[in-house]
Design goal:
Blueprint: H1 4-22, E1 26-29, E2 32-36, E3 41-43, E4 45-48, E5 56-63, E6 66-72, E7 77-80, E8 85-87, E9 101-103, E10 112-120, E11 123-134, E12 141-145, E13 156-165, E14 170-175, E15 185-191, E16 197-205, E17 214-220, E18 226-233, H2 239-246
Parallel strand pairs: 2-11
Antiparallel strand pairs: 1-4, 3-9, 5-6, 5-10, 6-7, 8-9, 10-11, 12-13, 13-16, 14-17, 15-16, 17-18
The chain binds 2-acetamido-2-deoxy-beta-D-glucopyranose (2 copies).
GO biological process, one term: cellular response to lipopolysaccharide
Domain Ig-like: 6-132, 140-233
Protein name: Ig-like domain-containing protein
């Protein structure tokens, strides 16, 4: 073991060097940022514990190993691989230690893990931050099959649809007595091209009755927050309509 001692010490020392150097400044990144679809998002990283005359030499932001934003002081250039990105601080200068990014027109695909590296004349450091993206659903809409002239005890299918949300939410069905009918429904989550989702909830009323013609569809987001609701009243056939049908007369609409 003894002959290895000095070599091991040297190895430990050498591998510590970059850490000591890096330790001179500290990059602090927010663990989690939340952005809204099509709005601006903030990817937050700032250098902490610096002396007032520190200057930023290089900033590299990466996503999944691919660089997406680079500032290089020597050439005073920004190499923006994504034109939607810029420093979040308006009129940023290399003496500004807030190297957070502003991401414009946020898309669902922008969600994920981001890495940030900063080199200053007082040392360097790296950090990580993540972005979650959310999109609100459109107001839910309800329709029924058949749409009108529903008879007592008829089987009726109701749909409640809402589009454009992310992450996927859920739909609950209630009647006027607040009885929860969700178990009798089936909700399909259809993914759109940009990863946003449409919810199509199909609820079958096995025996519709004009005593209780009123239903409500409640839309919840992925966190379980109520995002919207739609009320719907089944359109039963009028008594006159029924009499006419009994004598074999068919009324359209
Ligand atoms: C960095 O700048 C952005 C934009 O001005 C601001 O929202 C954010 O709070 C700043 N971060 C820190 C740590 O000061
Ligand atoms: C909801 O989706 C179903 C199935 O695609 C469709 O038949 C129905 O017309 C839609 N309803 C509304 C109100 O958009």
């Amino acid at each position: 073991m003894a002959p290895c001692g000095p070599a091991l010490l040297l190895l430990v020392f050498v591998s510590l060097l970059p850490c000591l150097h890096a330790g001179m400044i500290k990059l602090q990144c927010k663990n989690e940022n939340v952005g809204i679809y099509r709005q601006n998002s903030l990817l937050s990283c700032s250098v902490k514990d610096f002396s007032p005359d520190v200057t930023v030499i290089l900033v590299i932001w990466k996503k999944s190993g691919k660089s997406i934003f680079t500032f290089y002081a020597e050439k005073t250039t920004f190499e923006d691989e994504d034109p939607r990105l810029q420093f979040a601080e308006p009129n940023w200068t290399p003496n500004n230690m807030n190297i957070s990014l502003l991401l414009k027109n946020t898309q669902i695909a922008d969600a994920g893990q981001y890495e940030c590296m900063v080199v200053t004349d007082a040392g360097e450091d790296k950090g990580q931050t993540s972005l979650q993206v959310r999109a609100l659903y459109s107001k839910p809409t309800v329709c029924s099959f058949p749409e009108k002239n529903i008879e007592e005890h008829m089987k009726v299918t109701l749909y409640c649809n809402a589009s454009g949300g992310y992450p996927p939410g859920r739909i609950q069905w209630l009647d006027k007595y607040n009885t929860d009918w969700t178990a009798s429904s089936e909700t399909r989550v259809v993914q759109e091209e940009d990863k946003r989702t449409t919810l199509i909830s199909k609820f079958t009323v096995l025996q519709a009755t004009s005593v209780n013609p009123w239903y409500k569809c409640v839309l919840y987001d992925s966190d379980g927050n109520r995002q919207g609701e739609a009320k719907y009243t089944l359109s039963f056939a009028s008594k006159d309509h029924r009499k006419l049908q009994l004598i074999g007369f068919h009324l359209e609409d």
